[in-house]
UniProtKB/TrEMBL annotation:
Membrane spanning residue stretches: none
Keywords, in A-Z order: Aminopeptidase, Hydrolase, Protease, Signal
Signal peptide: 1-24
Name recorded for this polypeptide: Aminopeptidase
Family in the record: Belongs to the peptidase S58 family.
Record InterPro entries: ArgJ-like_dom_sf, Peptidase_S58_DmpA
Any one GO MF annotation of this record: aminopeptidase activity
Length: 403
């Protein structure tokens, strides 16, 4: 589920803030449900939450229409939270990788040094990283989500990543607040994960269509250990012409259709100038395979192979930053005591590489299939992926059987 924070004017001139709950994305909207041929076997939810213990929460902020009034709106943004073991504090082995660094992910220096992720992961818009980071610290303090190094003294470096939604959202108004971060963390749950324009992905665009949050998973064969790999993306990258689905150059076929508009000017590839690779993609990968930080780095370095399957190139204006963690080896973290852990031989890691690529590719396509047409500040509009046209194109390439 996700929360939509709606702002309504009252007759007395005040604003009323309330939260409404929306159900998870109904079956039939996800790419696989249309018969798109993805490699590999997904878990029961085909989501990052198929990795046991992982939970996800969203807070979605939508209000206002019309011209941009800085500090007031329109608002099209939010925050997404991923907790490796739910509300249980038990740091996990982790690592990260950046393909192109025109973006931000806080807290990564200590992950590199220590090998552990000690905080939740949050994703939001570029202008709200500081607010979300501070709120995460306060949430951890209130929930005792830490191990003190002396009495009740503790420290942490919350991991907060971002992509830019200023085309549709009053980004400089910094509308994400502490209570929004708390709600995303407190409402995080397992099971189905809502996708598309929700949470941190509310105001995002991907390959010239509505983007946002997407997720997918893969379960390895028992002969490869039976481990699960789950991926969640916040995609805001790519140009229309780059989009590739199931190996088919869908974007080239759709480049002259549904041009998005910014400040009343159409910016499809049929007009000039096209908007090329000025966005970003954040990828969070979880697995229950027993991997050490160095091995997790190797998984993180395979994420770009999944991105490129959908057409991304990690262009100069793109922030492509990826974080990976393992929920295996519970209680491996300690400030004072030795620990004994289990690790997977490197010779057995290829299946995890494959699962990483496959789940990343499908998560991005899922985000696109879940995207819905969005109008934001100044009437700026981006259309949802025309799924019927995509299916028709895939059939022309014999990737989906003709009915």
């Amino acid at each position: 589920m996700h929360i939509t924070k709606t702002i309504l004017p009252l007759s007395c001139g005040w604003l009323l803030f309330f939260f409404t709950t929306a159900s998870a994305q109904s079956a039939g909207y996800r790419a696989r449900d249309y018969g798109i041929p993805f490699d590999g076997a997904p878990g029961p939810f085909n989501a990052i939450t198929d990795v046991p213990g992982v939970t996800v929460g969203h807070t979605t902020l939508i209000s206002g229409n019309g011209p941009l009034v800085k500090g007031k709106g329109p608002v099209r943004t939010g925050v997404t939270a991923i907790l490796p073991r739910g509300t249980t504090f038990d740091p996990v082995y982790a690592n990260w990788y950046t393909l192109n660094g025109n973006g931000d992910m806080t807290g990564t220096h200590w992950i590199t040094e220590s090998g552990f992720l000690e905080t939740p992961i949050l994703i939001t818009n570029t202008g709200s990283v500081g607010t979300v980071r501070d709120a995460a610290w306060q949430w951890m303090d209130q929930h005792h989500y830490y191990t003190p190094f002396y009495h009740d003294y503790w420290y942490a470096y919350p991991v907060v990543a971002e992509t830019y939604d200023g085309i549709f959202n009053d980004i400089n108004g910094q509308h994400v607040r502490k209570e929004d971060v708390f709600h995303a963390l407190d409402s995080a749950h397992g099971g189905s994960v809502e996708e598309g324009g929700v949470g941190g992905g509310t105001g995002m665009m991907c390959y010239g269509f509505k983007g946002g949050i997407g997720t997918a998973s893969r379960v390895l064969d028992k002969s490869a250990g039976g481990y699960t790999v789950g991926v969640l993306v916040q995609c805001n990258h790519g140009s229309r012409e780059q989009l590739t689905i199931a190996g088919v150059p869908v974007g080239k076929a759709l480049r002259d259709t549904l041009p998005y508009s910014i400040d009343k000017q159409p910016l499809g590839l049929a007009s000039t100038p096209p908007r090329e690779e000025t966005g970003s993609i954040i990828v969070v990968l979880a697995t229950d395979a027993p991997l050490l930080p160095g091995q997790l780095k190797r998984l993180a370095q395979r994420i770009p192979l999944g991105v490129t399957r959908t057409g991304g190139i990690g262009g100069n204006g793109s922030g492509d930053i990826f974080i990976v963690f393992s929920t295996a080896n519970p209680h491996a973290f300690s400030n004072t005591e030795n620990r004994t852990v289990t690790t997977l031989p490197n010779d057995h890691i290829n299946a995890l590489f494959t699962a990483t690529v496959e789940a990343t590719e499908e998560a991005i396509v899922n985000a696109l299939f879940a995207g819905r047409t969005l109008t934001g500040i100044n009437g700026n509009t981006v259309y949802g992926l025309p799924t019927a046209a995509v299916i028709r194109i895939l059939r022309q390439y014999n990737r989906i059987p003709t009915k």
